[in-house]
Amino acid sequence: MASSCKPSVKKYTENARQLMLEGKFEEAIPILNTAIKKNSSSHEAYNLRGAAYLELDRFEKAKKDLDKAIKLHKKDYRYFYNRAKTEKILKKYEAAIEDYNKAISLNEHVANMYLERGELFLVLNKGDKSIEDLDKAVMLNSSEKMAYFNRAEAHYLLHELKAAIIDLEKCVRLDEKFGKGHYRLAQIALEMNQNRANRDICLHLRAAISGGCPEAEPLINKVCR
């Protein structure tokens, strides 16, 4: 079997990777096509092309390439992680969870994998499992606002409103312009206050609108006159 580290192929994959770092995914694909033509056993070329297709919303092509990368090499967490992201978008949720599990078993130090698996557990209404993953995501990266936002939603799913409020307060402290975070914080605070608005709730609703969340307008007109 030809080596996937063959110098000529490595040159192509490195060039493609640089283009992808610059957001030039379409331009990377012909280079990766050439790499695969030169060496059909280059699992890294299949992985990169799959990742490029994923960024370009060509999900079925992405999955096909990532299947090939994993068939050729089962020891790189990135391959399973990229396929999990693709399967999540394709709503193949159980398959996505299996691939997140495999990716994490190969590298347990990547915050985004716990964040994304936690989001997926939230979609599946598995609040406890979502919180467990999002706790780990926060531990690995305490500055990721979406970890707090999603953990708040998991707490809400479990009727833990105070915990949800605490996470949303952390979320909007990290990004004061995150309109969706302000809006959700105001919604849950109103629920706790039996739909009686206070000054802080109205401030969050105004911040939601200024942060690009027009859904807050009917609520602010209703409770903050």
Q: What does it look like?
A:
This protein has helices spanning about 5-20, 25-40, 45-55, 60-70, 75-90, 95-105, 110-125, 125-140, 145-155, 160-175, 180-190, 200-210, 215-225. The chain is elongated, with a radius of gyration of 21 Å. The chain contains 13 helices and no strands. It is an all-alpha fold and about 220 residues long. It starts with 6 loop residues before the first helix and ends with a helix. Helix 1 runs antiparallel to helix 2, helix 1 packs parallel to helix 3 and helix 8 runs antiparallel to helix 9.
List the keywords.
about 220 residues; mainly alpha; disordered N terminus
Coarse morphology: elongated
Question: Radius of gyration from the CA trace?
Answer: 21 Å
Helix fraction by DSSP (H/I, runs of at least 4): over 70%
Number of strands: 0
Order of helices and strands: HHHHHHHHHHHHH
Range of strand content: under 5%
Q: Could you tell me how far the N terminus lies from the C terminus, measured between alpha carbons in angstroms?
A: 73 Å
Average pLDDT level: 95
Low-confidence stretches: 1-6
In terms of structural class, how would the helical and strand content be classed? mainly alpha
Q: How many alpha or pi helices?
A: 13
Q: What does the largest sheet look like? A: none
